[in-house]
Amino acid sequence: DEKAAPVVRRRAREQGIDLALVEGSGPGGRILLEDLERFSGVSLDASAVAAPASEEILSPDENGSSQVHRGALPVQGLMPFTRMRAAIARTVSEAWRTIPHFYLSIDVDMAAAVEVRRELQLSGSKVTVNDLLIKASAVAIARHPQVNAAFAEDGFLLRSEINVGIAVALPDGLLVPVISRCEKLSLKEIAARTPALIARARAGQLAGSELQGGTFTITNLGMYGTTAFAAVIHPGQAAILAVGAIREAVVVRHGAPAVGPVMTLTLSADHRVFDGAYAAEFMRELQALLEAPVRLLI
Questions:
Q1: Which among 144, 234, 254, 271 is annotated as catalytic?
Q2: How remote is the C-alpha of 280 from its chain's centroid?
């Protein structure tokens, strides 16, 4: 910090940047605002983030203090992007501009999966619903390889590995650590790797290699009570699976209505790589695997 002026230190705190990681270009290696900009990829010049002068005015509120107004809408002030938030903004903007999304949803009767998970945990295997989803997705992808592909100008690239990314929520954004070679891993091996990977993501201790190489992503908001949602595909991938909460609902078993645990899965797919029928076959396969999860133990 001694090699940075107070304004640089303050901007680094606002951006969530560790100055020890920034190479200074000033005299004696002093860190300048421009160095922060290069490091984060976000413009830190006040003129780059302020509204045009003709649109910004100060007016007193009822307590006599001033509020900033941008055009006709009053604002409290500008909250600068953190480095992570800026990266997310760039990524989802690119995805939304360049990938033609379409969506499919399916309800899964989770009674058998919940029971298998309970029995595995009683036997000492700490398997989660996410672990079952990762394994089921890997098996279904192996049978529907275009879900694991990537768009290219002259066709699409089929990957030889199934590397599943797991979206992990953080206070100012999210990270997507990757479990590599899932097609080679048993459910028990997946369950052994996932907790440590998620813990390192939340602690900011992931290696760069653990964030690279994803070919398919799973994002789960069930723990927040969300029953269904659609996610944005990561650039370089062809699909992402959004997972809702397990909830009690009416299901049909043996031709009769019953109440049981149901989970909604929504696939966001790149229409350039595969079509609705192919996506529906993949989702039906995923549903079948989760409703008869003994096949995931083989």
A1: 271
A2: 22
Non-local (6+) Cβ contacts of 234 within 8 A are 91, 95, 165, 176, 214, 217, 240
* 254 catalytically annotated: no
3-class DSSP assignment, residue 96: helix
pLDDT tens across the length of the chain (298 residues): 457 777 778 777 766 677 777 777 777 778 887 777 776 654 444 333 333 333 343 444 555 544 555 455 676 778 888 888 888 999 999 999 999 999 999 999 999 999 999 999 999 889 999 999 999 999 999 999 999 999 998 899 999 999 999 999 998 889 999 999 999 999 999 999 999 999 999 998 988 899 999 999 999 999 999 999 999 999 999 999 999 999 999 988 888 998 999 999 999 999 999 999 999 999 999 999 999 999 999 8
Q: Collapse the DSSP code of 167 into the 3-class scheme (helix H, G, I; strand E, B; otherwise coil) and give the result.
A: coil
Closest by CA to 246, choosing from 112, 72, 49, is 112
What's phi and psi for 56, nearest 5 deg?
A: -115, 125
Tokens in use for 164?
């599943």
pTM of the predicted model as reported, rounded to 2 decimal places = 0.75
Q: Do residues 179 and 209 make contact, with C-beta atoms less than 8 angstroms apart?
A: no
- Tally of CB atoms within 10 A around 113: 24
Q: Which amino acid is at 95?
A: A
